Amino acid sequence: MPKIKIEMKKLSFFAAIMLFVNIAFAQSLDDVKKYVLLNQTKPAKEAVDKYMAVPKNALKPDGWYYKGYAYDLTSKDSGLTIEQAIAFKGESFDAIKKYFELDAKGPLSVEQNNSVLFDLYVGYSSDLGVKAYTKKDYATAHECFKKALEVHDFVYSKNLAGANNYKFAAMDTTLILYSAISANDAKNKDEAVVYYRKLTDANIADTQYVDAYQYLADYYKTKKDDANFAGIIEKGRKLYPKNNDYWTALEIEQATDGVEKPQIFDKYDALIAKHPDNYVLPFNYSVELYKYIYSDEMKNANTTAYKEKLTKSLSQAITIKSTPEANFLMANYLYNNSIDVSEEARKLKGPKPADLKTKKDLEALSSKQVTDAIPYAEKVVSLFGENPKPKSSEKMNYKQSLVILKNIYEVKKDPAKVAVYDKKIKEIE
Question: Which helix (H) or strand (E) holds 172?
Fold first, then answer.
């Protein structure tokens, strides 16, 4: 029995010592508030860590708020790396979220205009995110922009206001765009898609966000995701009609990828039927037909049907938009084909009536096509004169059109017209 009493005395003495230690080293919330409000970073963090180390204090909301405050202050220490600053801001945000979990009204935060949350938003985005992106640390920049969005969404979900009653909009479109761009630059395309989709799903139509639609269209084309590709192209056409040529070009690529000639022409027929007023489709179709007609594989083949398709598609393109390129292609084709037809007629030397009739028909066709080429070549010349800054390809088409017109009038034996076009040719040489 005496032995037991001695042990109990020792235990009581140990408990008394521990109580003294706790009293001596425990931190009051008032101390935490003092250091935080005075912006004394190191003492504030030490004080809040000691306060929160007491289990019962971790059950109270106020301690979490001031932990968030102190850790946000700590994250701004100039001696920290970006990664360390991100970690402190993460703990700060977690603490503030815990505070609102324990006290949904968040009076301490509201009284101070939710300054910690708004400061975290700015710190993640304008400070750390931009800093990391400038250093080309795109993965870290993306992480920061993502965290800023998380803060934004939390603040918005709680309907919290900042100074002067400032409130976030439902979507921070600029920050979403930065998140997408940084993810792509970090070679994380799938992650970039997540953020670009936030913009396109909201049908954002401002010109600065057209890249979101273009990025997704190219992404889905590459992935051969036909359903999503068609959906984003449709949205792009509707919201950004001025970029119609771009949407069409992607649609052509998607439809014709891996398709050989002549099967590719069926794809063009389907696209033209779908978009009858689109200039790019019949023009590109005509270019493909022209190259196919004069390809090595078609040297000894019957190209009549394809030539008929060519003149039809070019006429459709010119009707929609009379461009120098389309007019030149038509003039060039008609002129060259007239020479080919004339050569066919020259080869027919048989005395049979059928041969003579065929020869006569071919000569008539050749003459007609030479004449038909004139207005198209003249249109190229006319449009060139209206262009103050012609490209090198446009200058080349202009010169070739002059040569075609000179040659045609030589065939027609019109020396006056020949002289006019010969002079124009010399002026640009």
Answer: none
